Amino acid sequence: MKAPHQQNHLNPRKLFTYTLYVLIPLALLHYYLLKPYPAPARFSPQIHTSLDPSSHIHPHDDDDDFVQPPEKELKLQNQTLPRCDYSAGTWIHDERGPLYNGTSCNTIKENQNCMAHGRPDTGYLYWRWRPTECSLPRFDPLSFLQLIRNRHLAFIGDSLARNQAESLMCLLASGSHPELVYQDSTENRYRRWIFGSHNATVSIYWSPFLVKRIEKNEKEGIRHNRVFLDSFDERWISEFESMDVIVFSLGHWFLIPGIYYENEQIIGCHVCSEFNHTEIGFFDVFRKAVTRTLEEVRRRHVEGDDRRKRLVAVTTFTQAHFEGEWDKAGSCAKKEPYKEGEVKMEYTAGEMRRTVVDALESLRGNGDGSRVNGLQFEAVDVTRLALLRPDGHPGPYMYPNPFENGKAGDRVQNDCVHWCMPGPVDTFNEILWQLIAQPGLFS
Ligand SMILES: *[C@@H]1O[C@H](CO)[C@@H](O)[C@H](O)[C@H]1NC(C)=O
Ligand SMILES: *[C@@H]1O[C@H](CO)[C@@H](O)[C@H](O)[C@H]1NC(C)=O
Ligand SMILES: *[C@@H]1O[C@H](CO)[C@@H](O)[C@H](O)[C@H]1NC(C)=O
Ligand SMILES: *[C@@H]1O[C@H](CO)[C@@H](O)[C@H](O)[C@H]1NC(C)=O
Question: Which of the four, 128, 321, 391, 415, has the lowest number of CB atoms within 10 Å?
């Protein structure tokens, strides 16, 4: 538990951290965290207007494109995987390379399709995370699909949640064909696919604070998000009952300007010198959003169908890798992982991670990892392994051929927050797979 004084005022170190975050990547974060999401070039014709998964099951008899998967299901190689701390380990070279690429998978967001955008180096594709305590097997799409057969896996959060969801879609699509069954009309914030071979559903829900919010609108001069820390986001929570696996991923939106409410009163704001409200930073409001959401999820689970099993996972914060001048667009030009000791975790990233890990730990009950009525809480604890991968971001390759016509590197917009696909984000899903595969949960 945190000491009360840590929660209630800013110590100089925190203040420094806020300032740093405000000055360096804010403009960049704004730019691509908030940019509307372009519609994909092509998608399945069967688009529905409801997010209710039960209404999307289609027979595939007349679908020529549908590839029937092998009858025989691959069994998980080891049914008794021990509990492992996947966060401790090292990146080791791996000749095998990724399971998919920018041409074999069509759910890669354009800005993360580094290969297609002309990124010339490929070394970043040949690394594998080796945990210190145990093994992390190479992703196996059919084993994963077998675990979520007749189940619904939902990613809920910000653009990093979407990045991880799209990575999982590419990994799974290397084994079976998904059908896009829902997509919101304009900004593509909500989508759903079904793998007909396994009746397995994967959804993405946009919810960058998890709780209720009114998003900023730069066009109308509204620079601040308004976040209601004691109200839930109905868009996803109203569909909670249908979800068997939930992966939350959030954090970066708490760093940008926001006004925070409780009980319909403003309790403070962040990056808000133009208002006469208390600057409350982001650690406390982040902690409240996460813990209240997880507590509500537990409450709804316990009150729901008592035979249902659920995994609720939170992907931990990953820090940006911008380097260079404070007042210029930073970049992330490294082509290899950092070696042990070569990089230090930012205070902010460490605190954001710890907030999530502590919240999950206290919800787990006796601290022994036991399930509460079939509800398993887990962290996809990737803060450290992601820290070591400055080479895994799109950098300038968020746009096609950024250096054509002699454009200079320092004037090109860089993305050093999201991950190339394929890339290190695929490892997040290898860890997720192991968490889902825990004995007695779904298998
Ligand atoms: C897999 O199972 C075998 C025997 O059942 C056991 O000896 C081995 O340690 C297990 N390996 C892992 C990674 O759990
Ligand atoms: C992409 O993957 C497909 C299918 O695995 C393969 O045939 C193709 O050669 C790959 N392309 C590149 C550029 O690696
Ligand atoms: C398909 O999966 C959904 C959950 O996503 C489940 O509610 C439904 O019962 C499944 N259908 C069949 C035929 O098992
Ligand atoms: C700002 O808040 C302080 C303390 O609540 C108050 O004394 C002051 O009058 C306010 N200033 C403005 C401009 O509203």
Answer: 128
Q: Looking at 8-17, 70-79, 426-435, which range is the least confident one?
A: 70-79
Ligand nearest the Cα atom of residue 78: 1
* Of 159, 167, 197, 331, catalytic: 159
| Domain boundaries defined on the chain | 4-436
417 to each of 169, 318, 323, 384, 387, how far by Cα in Å? 20, 8, 12, 14, 11
- 104 is known as an active-site residue: no
Catalytic residue at 418?
yes
- Taking the alpha carbons at both ends of the chain, their separation in whole angstroms is 34
Closest ligand to the CA of 277: 4
- 122 Cβ below 6 A of ligand 2: no
DSSP 363-412: HTSSSS---BTTEEEEEE--HHHHHT-GGGS-BGGGSSSTTGGG--GGGS
Say whether pTM exceeds 0.85.
no
CATH number 3.30.2310.20 given to 4-436: no
